[in-house]
Request: fold
Amino acid sequence: MAYTIGDISESTGLSRHTLRYYERAGLLPPVSRDGGGRRCYDERDLRWLRFLMRLREAGMPIATIRRYVQLLGQGETSLPQRIELLDSHRQALRAKIQRLQNHLDAVDAKLDLYRREGVDCLAKAND
Reply:
């Protein structure tokens, strides 16, 4: 099934401008065009965009995603490099999750203190 840029924009929540930018920036494999030059996306493009959105939301830099797309274009020979790239990002995400968990634990501890000791703990809260 073929999708227009409007269809893809509605489906993903990405603006048309963003979709065009992603294509120009090399974050998308080349999108096919119809006889009038309009972009024609397919299911593969839609799946890739959803994965791309996850990578962006997870903090992967555009340059790294561009490198990943380049590696994809090289086919199976680039599989070890793609695994290394994704594994590196995975490790960075795990470290970030741990830092965030530590922050959450500190906030939880402070809330527990406030709930146990009530308003009087405000004087001691600057520790």
